[in-house]
Amino acid sequence: MYFKKIIGQRCYLSPINVEDCEKYTEWVNDMEVAGGLIFASQLIGLETEKSILERISTSGYNFAIVDIEKDELIGNCGFPELDHLNRVGEVGLFIGNKDYWGKGYGQEVLKLMLDFGFNILNLHNIFLRVYSFNNQAIKCYKKVGFKEAGRIREAKFVAGKAYDEIFMDILDIEYTSIYINNIIDKKLQK
Which residues form the N-acetyltransferase domain (predicted)? Predict the structure, then answer.
């Protein structure tokens, strides 16, 4: 079961449902899905994934990404690291359902997360990490407004080739809220 916590046009963010552990286990073990993620080299079984979901569903700000029309789980996102004192947060996401790749869902999810991070969590800087071989993700992040902040050269070796780990970020003053401001505007009109 999913709950519409943050609603976009084509998808919404819901608290993570631990019952989805089989689907997540399938995705995190699919190298095409997990290749660009930190845990790509790990073997993650059903029990391990279930315990990870139990932990992240009860701590921090982690969400299931759900197709708004089909109520179908397509991935997850969250803030794996938050520094409230300095108002900095790391955002991460993955679309596990390949049917949704390259269709703008990643952009919409990032916009929802930026709205939440800047307007609800009161963050000033939101950053992410991506490997230089993940061109599709880099294009998505740039379209949303992320800029390259730095890189660790040759930090990831895949199939005998070295790739950079790129840090990208966006500041609250560089982002125009769409979703949260619409909610507030509707409340003011009543």
Answer: 11-169
How many residues make up the chain in this entry?
A: 190
List phi, psi (to 5°) of 123: -80, 155
- The owner of tokens 């794996």 is 80
Burial of 108: CB neighbours in 10 Å, binned 0-12, 13-18, 19+? buried
Q: How far apart are CA 68 and CA 8, in angstroms?
A: 8
* Domains of the chain, earliest start first: 6-189 (3.40.630.30)
Residue the block writes with tokens 């895949």:
158
Side chain identity at residue 78, one-letter code:
G
Tens-digit pLDDT profile for residues 33-87? 777 666 666 677 888 888 888 888 888 899 999 999 999 999 999 999 999 999 9
Q: What angle do CA 32, 147, 42 make, to 5 degrees?
A: 30
Element (H, E) at 162: strand 161-171
Amino acid in the structure at residue 36: G
Closest CA to 71 of 138, 156, 7, 136: 7
The pairing of beta strand 88-95 with beta strand 6-7 = unpaired
Residue 147, Cα to own-chain centre: how many angstroms? 16
Residue 190: band (very low, low, confident or very high) from pLDDT cuts 50, 70, 90: low
Which tens digit of pLDDT belongs to each residue from 148-174? 999 999 998 888 899 999 999 999 999
What share of the chain has pLDDT > 70, as a percent? 91
